[in-house]
Amino acid sequence: MNRHYACITFDFDAMSGLVARGLTTPTPVSRGEFGAVALPRILDLLKRYDIKASFFIPGVVIGTYPRECEQILAYGHEIGHHGWTHVPPANLTPEQEEDGLIRGIEKIRELTGAAPRGYRSPSWDLSTYTVELLLRHGFLYESSMMGNDHEPYRVRQGDVVSVDEPMQFGKPTPLIELPISWTLDDFPHFEYLRVGQSLAPGLQNASGVLENWVNDFEYMRQTCDWGILTYTCHPYVIGRGHRMIMLDKLLKSLQEKGAQFITLEQAARMYDERSLFHA
Q: Using N-to-C axis directions, what is the helix angle for 241-256 and 206-223, rounded to 10°?
């Protein structure tokens, strides 16, 4: 029997992603605050469809919004690691990265009673040390890379990347990758953002984004017997009125197409059973 899965995921960054970009004045901070306003409406929508989602939360956000994070947990959703701050690992020293990883693990353990099984890097930018650290600290999966669209795979370690020589691929590790894509992320489509001389225009019509997101699932359904498609949203982005209507339509459309909704941890365990790791 065909099995087509959809993972609805949220990066509850609040203001941490903006602060990490140096935007610390009142307006960008308030922009992040809207995530806490939007969260209850998102949780209510997921409950209406009986969907369990995966929420990735930086440690500083758990400290800033403990009640909201407790509410996510109370609704039965997965809570994954999203850094201590929202500074990308690629911008940290190995010592800073591991310190933040440990602090985030402990904050999630304090919230949930258990260490997180999944990791998603801030800004989807891993360092050359991240995989080693995730393996060292017992993570089952990570979800920050784009080497496939709806087929999980094992994360490699030891790639050699050179500007003027062929790529040398490292060896697969037990760590499972649940791939993502900027095309299935709400932020680049919707957020207007100025940082220095750069501009992210965003503000796209939600109907066009909805069509793309539904069609990616439809393509998976037409071309493979088994697959997992991961959508990434941010409460302060998707939580605006017209985008909430879009999210509602997305969940309804996927449901009508036979999507089975699972968390990323469930997806990783399912893949692990289908494709046993051989060292």
A: 20
Number of Cα atoms under 13 Å in the Cβ half of residue 235:
30
The CA-CA-CA angle for residues 240, 53, 58, to 5°, reads 75
**CA proximity to 36, closest of 67, 76, 58, 7:** 67
Residue that has been written with the tokens 């991240």 in this structure: 130
The second-level CATH assignment, the architecture, of 3-274 is Alpha-Beta Barrel (3.20)
3-state per-residue secondary structure call for 162-226: CCCCCCECCEEEEEEECCCCHHHEHHHHHCCEEECCEEECCCCCHHHHHHHHHHHHHHHHHHCCE
- Tens of pLDDT, residue by residue over 83-132, are 999 999 999 999 999 999 999 999 999 999 999 999 999 999 999 999 99
pLDDT over 80 (residue 279): no
